[in-house]
Design goal:
The chain is α/β, with parallel strands linked by helices. The chain has a single domain, classed as Rossmann fold. It has helices at about 5, 25-30, 60-70, 85-95, 120-125, 175-185, 190-200, 205-210, 240-250, 265, 270-290; strands spanning about 10-15, 35-40, 75-85, 100-105, 155-160, 170-175, 225-230, 255. Strand 1 (about 10-15), helix 2 (about 25-30) and strand 2 (about 35-40) form a beta-alpha-beta unit. Mean pLDDT is about 85; it is low at about 125-145.
């Protein structure tokens, strides 16, 4: 292993309702290749026992990632990898630990520079423009901002109103009978079965509150190199929605996978290869910048 590879530390972040278990194939591939890798359970995700209906702010939801990153030595080169809604966790972490992060990789992920600040942010990421914000007394017919528009597939989501029927929803999960069709339709049956046993309701109220502010210090969000991995057969974050995010906040590179929403299951070897390629490509570009004459810096 090269000296650079020995200092790399991959930190993998799951999407809403998932957990560190989502990454078991990628973690095995990385560790077998000698890389350091950590998989995080966000609050109420994975083995974290918190009630998602009581996780009401994004800061609370993402605190496990923030706490973990604060313990990583400065000499480690952190490679943040986020899937789906885990992209919001990456952006939040970049704003807090920009100087520590070598690269951020978004996989079919929410990539918004400062989160959900405008209606256009929501439309660019998730909506077809037909949904409206939640208002009291809408019951189960509500249209929720910040959630993928899956209405073309019918009534596919179980929603919990933990604060009462006249308050916005607090958690959401895709119904078991639709999970394979929507999230894992190209994945091995054993993986979609595993996911159906482990997926939990996600704290949607917290995710809706993902609004970030720049701090104005050296952790400038645009100083961290970003890479986006598109999933061309995605039925949750559709390719055109991924394109909208890429256009709005352009990353350094875009890679493409012929996969469903969950390439860590459907195309793990290709995804692993892309992650390593993204790191190598970023390092080459940084080395070239370092070799420029001082007058060009």
């Amino acid at each position: 292993m090269t000296k650079m590879a020995s200092t790399l530390h991959f930190v993998l972040v799951h999407g809403v309702g998932g957990g560190s278990w989502c990454w078991y194939k990628i973690r095995c591939l990385m560790e077998n290749s000698g890389y350091k890798v950590s998989c995080i359970d966000l609050k109420s995700g994975g083995i974290d026992s918190s009630d998602p209906n009581k996780v009401l702010t994004f800061e609370d939801y993402n605190q496990p990632l923030i706490d973990f990153l604060s313990t990583i030595p400065d000499h480690d080169k952190i490679i943040l990898v986020g899937h789906s809604a885990g992209g919001l966790s990456l952006t939040h972490a970049i704003l807090k630990f920009g100087k520590k992060i070598h690269l951020a990789i978004f996989i079919a992920a929410t990539m918004l520079r400062l989160g959900f600040w405008t209606e256009q942010d929501v439309k660019d990421v998730f909506l077809d423009g037909s949904r409206q914000p939640y208002t009291p007394n809408m019951g189960n017919a509500f249209c929720l901002q910040g959630v993928p528009d899956l209405s073309e597939f019918g009534d596919v989501e179980d929603v919990t109103f933990g604060n009462g029927p006249n308050e916005p929803p607090t958690s959401i999960v895709i119904k078991k009978e639709f999970q394979r069709k929507l999230a894992y339709h190209m994945s091995p049956l054993e993986d979609s079965t595993l996911a159906s046993m482990l997926l939990k309701p996600g704290p949607i109220r917290a995710l809706q509150g993902a609004q970030f502010k720049e701090t104005g210090n050296d952790n400038d969000i645009d100083k961290v190199t970003r890479v986006y991995i598109k999933t061309l057969n995605d039925r949750i974050v559709k390719p055109e929605q991924q394109d909208a995010m890429i256009k709005k906040w352009a990353p350094a590179d875009v890679y493409v996978l012929e996969s469903d929403h969950s390439p860590m299951f459907s195309t793990p070897f290709l995804l692993f290869g892309m992650l390593i390629k993204a790191v190598a490509s970023t390092q080459i570009k940084l080395d070239l910048l370092d070799q420029r004459p001082l007058s060009e810096h």
